[in-house]
Amino acid sequence: MNDSIFSLLPFLIFVVPLAWGNYLLAAKSGRSGVLWVVLTIIPVVGLLATWYLIYSCIIRLLDRRNGMAA
Length: 70
Fold this sequence. Notes:
single chain, mainly alpha, elongated
């Protein structure tokens, strides 16, 4: 029992702050924060979802900066 908890610890240490950041980023950009937290917790999907969320926010900010707000 203890071995399984300790083997899950590195995953939790990495995913919990990432999920919290994705929640805040999604909420600020008008998306469902809970959905992005769930997507972040799924191991492979979480990294892809995080990259998508970050880059879509960067693109949105650059468009606003250039006067092309969507």
